[in-house]
Amino acid sequence: MRRHPGYALDFLSRIKYLQPDLEIPYCHHERWDGSGYPQGLKGEDIPLFARIFAVVDVYDALTSDRPYRLAWSKQRALDYIQEQSGIQFDPRLVAEFLALRSRVDRNSRCEQIVIESS
């Protein structure tokens, strides 16, 4: 498991148009507190787009069924991401992600009300 960022880097580096963004798949398992991999980067030493992708990737992974477990509820995944703020994830990005999810959920509820009242 810990080797897959290196495998992704090797594989994707052969695709010319992806080369400017290889830091995303390579660094998305780094952790804000420095305990991640493959390089053990910490805080803002982790490339910004890899930090963003880390939050989104974990949310997607937790809210999707896997062969070894059922998907978590959206709320449980959001609670986990909040708990990991400052540990696994950049606290500023967690705040932005949670605010964005809240707006998306509010808009979805509003759209559902409009559809139901039509």
Question: Which percent band covers the strand fraction?
Answer: under 5%
Helical residue percent? 55-70%
**How would you sum up the major sheet?**
none
Give the C-alpha Rg. 17 Å
Query: Number of DSSP strands?
Result: 0
Terminus-to-terminus distance = 49 Å
In short:
With 118 residues, this protein is mainly alpha-helical.
What does this protein structure show overall?
It is globular and about 50 Å long. By secondary structure, the protein is mostly helical. It contains five helices and no strands. The mean pLDDT is 91. The relative contact order is 0.11.
Characteristic terms for this protein:
118 residues, mainly alpha
SSE diagram, text form:
Elements: H1 4-12, H2 23-27, H3 48-62, H4 74-83, H5 91-117
